[in-house]
Write a structure and sequence with these properties.
The structure is a single chain. By secondary structure, this protein is of the alpha+beta class. The chain is about 35% helix and about 20% strand. The chain is built from 14 helices and 28 strands.
Length: about 600
């Protein structure tokens, strides 16, 4: 089994977890029962030992295409052969938010629409990242896969539809079968989490049809709430639907991406576990969702953020961690998988994320800015929330002038990052705004003094006169794409000469055919070997910066070019490689959030 390009995947999910479905009809990444649970299928990280779930035409000589059922997250993989046309409809019904009650049904409905086709089915689970043994238990109406950590059932009208000559047979640690369908016929397979005493049952087609219709209705009703009616409606809606898929319904948390350890450079070590919730991402999510009118999701994220601020404990990194588990847990110990080879031999495969212990002072600005926006465009924040904000701002006033690891989570030592100072300014400035707008209590005199001290320090130390630009950290001449947020957070006027000079410098040094690098790895070593691609989120920030500077034609061209780097379904991974390939974890929430913001602001500026 070869590795598909990262971009050759679609995504289905049930607001608890997701599955990546390749254009070959193979599910090569699926964690159950949650995003950050151990994987059941992980072939995208080790083709031989990871496990997979394949449904496709039997034999060679076929081609395929993928699309989403309009305005939904139901994925359709269409197969074209000399004898017919068929498709696999993949979806996960949206069920209870109650973790204990959720069945996590992964439904695969195979339909032939023209001619006759023979399909093959092969299911090879590998529980607990391939570390747990399992048993295969055959039943008349399906099969059970039992491990010490999880039991899954593969069910459907299997015995009846396949006929006596084409029953499931054992193969390695899974099952295999072929089956024939003519135009108008279908076959459904349901993989679901079950209790240990479960007995596989038939899954009639009318039940599949009902689940399909209910899933279509859910997604269409949800996306209809979007208030965006601009030029790029299709891409914005797909981004919104993707963000919803990356949301963990029981807590309202948003994972940074659906995967772990997809490399930023093939064969390199820049591989990270993104199946957790960053304070930064949650904060930007509030902004993006409020822009589109999804107030319910914004309220859920607000609840998650508020919960993180309640447990007041000032550790080495501050009162908040930069990231948490989707259930709110703080312990995210990072280990390296001892056996898996990684995507196309890009080791190590990491489980957990040690960056959770880093100090990144910018998170307070992003968090309080999102609370400010929620208070302004959503609902007024409550007393307890404000008291937590006030306490954080008081702490930040005493601690903003510290070195940290910065937004990019570098492992090359702490520095005085300009972006961290910028967002510390944002935190205090937005608290002052809320104080004045609603008369909320706070040390307004002290806050004003610290806000102005940060501003003056950035203007003095963050500005490099020789470069004619704001730089990555104090005392350096290195540029950094995070500085693109300066006009977006209203720190500087978008047409200020200093800012226009910085924007010009970023365009000359960090932009390559519209794509934007985070920073120059050679000029600013980050403690890791190898190079990385351009950062997709930063490209959309560049679009916004150009827009606010009045360079609308240029902004629109950059935006339109960036849209060509999306995959066939409109999805983005973290980075774009040197030949246009998608790299890094997939799909990445931050990129889709930045797309929404850029599309909204550019469309408004164009009129």
């Amino acid at each position: 089994m070869d590795y598909l390009p990262i971009a050759e995947h679609g995504l289905v999910g049930d607001l608890h977890t997701v599955a990546l479905v390749g254009t070959t009809g193979t599910i090569d990444w699926y964690c159950c029962p949650a995003f950050d649970s151990p994987s059941v299928f992980g072939a995208i990280l080790d083709a031989e030992r990871g496990g997979f779930y394949a449904v496709r035409p039997f034999g060679d000589g076929w081609t395929s295409r993928q699309l989403y059922f309009p305005d939904t997250n139901i994925l359709i993989t269409r197969f074209f052969t000399e004898s017919g046309v068929g498709e696999v409809q993949d979806f996960m019904p949206i069920e209870s938010v109650d973790v204990a009650m959720h069945r996590h049904r992964l439904i695969r409905r195979v339909v032939v629409v023209r001619g006759d086709m023979r399909f093959m089915l092969e299911v090879q689970p590998r529980f607990d990242y391939g570390r747990a043994e399992h048993e295969v238990e055959m039943h008349p109406h399906g099969v059970l896969f039992r491990s010490s950590v999880l039991t899954l059932a593969l069910e459907g009208a299997i015995a009846h539809a396949m006929g006596s000559q084409r029953r499931l047979e054992r193969r390695d640690g899974g099952v295999f079968a072929t089956f024939d369908l003519a135009a108008g016929q279908s076959q459904t397979f349901v993989l679901e989490r079950v209790a240990e005493d479960h007995i596989a049952r038939p899954y009639p087609e009318h039940e599949t049809a009902a689940s399909f219709d209910a899933t279509v209705h859910y997604w269409r009703r949800w996306v209809a709430q979007s208030g965006y009616k601009g030029r790029w409606r299709e891409m914005v809606q797909r981004s919104a639907l993707t963000l919803k898929l990356l949301t963990y319904a029981p807590t309202g948390a948003l994972v940074a991406a659906a995967t772990t350890s997809l490399p930023e450079q093939l064969g390199g070590e820049r591989n990270w576990d993104y199946r957790y919730t960053w304070i930064r991402d949650a904060a930007f999510s509030l902004y993006g969702l409020l822009r589109l009118g999804f107030t319910e999701e914004a309220a859920a994220f607000m609840g998650w953020l508020t919960d993180r601020t309640r447990d007041w404990h000032v550790g080495p990194s501050g009162p908040l961690q930069i990231m948490y588990g989707i259930d709110g847990r703080a312990e995210l110990t990072e280990i390296e998988h001892p056996f898996w080879s990684g995507y196309r031999d890009s080791a190590p495969v990491r489980i957990g994320n040690a960056a959770a212990d880093q100090r990144q002072l910018d998170i307070y600005g992003e968090m309080i800015d999102s609370i400010y926006l929620y208070n302004k465009y959503g609902r007024p924040v409550h007393y307890d929330t404000w008291e937590n904000v006030r306490r954080i701002v008081d702490w930040l006033c005493e601690n903003w002038d510290q070195a940290d690891e910065g937004i990019w989570e570098t492992r090359g030592g702490q520095k005085d990052f300009t972006y961290s100072r910028l967002m510390s300014w944002v935190a205090i400035e937005r608290a002052i705004r809320m104080n004045r707008a609603r008369g909320l209590p706070g040390d307004i005199v002290g806050w004003l003094g610290e806000r102005d001290r940060i501003y003056n320090q950035i203007m003095k130390k963050g500005w490099n006169e020789e470069r004619g630009a704001f730089v990555q950290h104090y005392g350096s001449d290195v540029l950094d794409a995070s500085i693109l947020l300066m006009p977006l957070v209203l720190f500087t006027a978008p047409t200020d000469p200093r800012w226009l000079s910085t924007l010009e410098a970023v365009g000359d040094e960090l932009v390559s055919d519209s794509l934007v690098y985070r920073y120059n790895v050679e000029a600013s070593p980050d403690g890791l070997r190898g190079d990385e691609g351009t950062f997709s989120m930063c490209t959309f920030w560049y679009v916004e910066a150009l827009t606010r500077a009045g360079r609308l034609d240029e902004a629109r061209l950059v935006f339109e070019k960036m849209l060509t780097y999306a995959n066939h379904l409109g999805l983005y991974s973290e980075e774009i490689g040197p030949t246009g390939e998608q790299l890094g974890n997939f799909p990445q929430a931050f990129t889709h959030l930045a797309l929404i913001s850029a599309a909204y602001n550019l469309n408004r500026a164009l009129g």
